[in-house]
Design brief:
This protein is mostly beta strands and about 475 residues long. It folds into 2 domains: about 280 residues, Neuraminidase; about 180 residues, 6 Propeller (Neuraminidase), CATH 2.120.10.30. The protein is about 0% helix and about 55% strand. The chain has no helices and 40 strands. Strands 1, 2, 23, 24 and 25 form a 5-stranded antiparallel beta sheet that branches. The two termini are about 30 Å apart.
Amino acid sequence: MKVSRGVWCISLACLVLVCAGFWLHDGGAPANPPSFATANQITHDGLAKTAVLSDGSALYVAEEKDGHQVISRIVPGTGEQSTIETPFADVRAMDVSPDHTSLLASPAHAGARNRELWTIPLNKVASTRLGKLAADDAAWSPNAEELVSVKGNEIWITSAKGTNAKKLAAVKGRPFSPRFSPDGQKIRFSVSDVETNTSALWEVGRDGLNPHEMLAGWDKAHAVCCGVWSKDGKSYIFQATQSWPPITTLWVLAESGVEPEQLTDGRMSFGSPWPAENDKIWALGVKPTAELVKYDAAQENYEKVLSGISATDTDFSPDGKWVSYVLIPDGTMWRSRADGSEKVQLTFAPERAALPRWAPDGKQIAYVSSRTGQPSRIMVISQQGGKATPAHAENHGQIDANWSADGKRMIYGYVFGTPDMSINMLDLRSHKITKIAGSDGLFSPRWSPDGRYLVALSLDFTKVML
């Protein structure tokens, strides 16, 4: 099979995302943490959702519509939906005010950090900026008199107007999703580390005392985030991602307990929890599947490829006779004939594979290998299978391998968020690394077919650099 010019094989992700409400109960024993009772699907629109907030009567869901990030208001009882009006084409909501009259939001610019903060009133009056305050993430205190915000690797507390700023903590990694406790005395937040593919939960007092990582010693503490307190403050609900299969589940930690209890299980991932009334929590549910199709530019239509396989990250061999792909949700890499026959599994759990690229001679495949607790690495494996070897060992998270036309060199970038991002060229014979001049702050490189040019993305996703 020859892959003709103008035909691209792509993956259409059919992500079934729902907003679900969970009943929590404690079995009548105050000392026991809440446990899962039932779940109900609220939305059925199939739109990609990334976060959910609630004011008690409606949900405010981050969605992508017509190529823009918007905030949708959903009434659970009736299913009525509307889009919140904001001054921005793309917007991100961070919190709901304690009096349920406003959203805390910021303009959503891809890759941008330290964005200005705005209040978006729910009664349709004009939105206002919070002074000169800018942050990566933020949340109101229970009495709405203070804000906790994230700036770089630091946690800050300010007045609700952005004055009287005080630094509470600095951590290694990127903090996000800060939340006050219901009594306003503690702040918990998540910290991700792109160098080690980990995320953790942290806590600090509102006075800045005793900053520390939570759940130390728990076997899932390296892949947790995005926690919220229940309305009564007796429980803390968060999400954890297991290594295999890569499913995200909800857990609950009683304030009087020492170890979390699991709330959800199964093939559907649940995340982004938010407290609701009457012992409920809201959460986003994701059931990841994908369908491979090819697009014929001349005919302007799609045709199925490898029918019946839920996969992404396809790449054809140079002669078009073979194809590599990554199964969803398993994260394992396979190769087969272009018609799906002669399948061979190339990678195995707990390793997660991504972005395979065939060598020009069709004998090897380079791909991104991810393991929890380790930086992602470019690995090279025979198309027949066997042991994979690192293209170049280092302590930064590598991504986006591209072969030169003669197969003697390889370029790659670093995982988004890595300090000192740039594009490197690797000589596969001498193993010498050369940093591409002028590539500082660029990532996701691609090599032109004739080998004369490179293109890469800027950190704000707004420029393609040649």
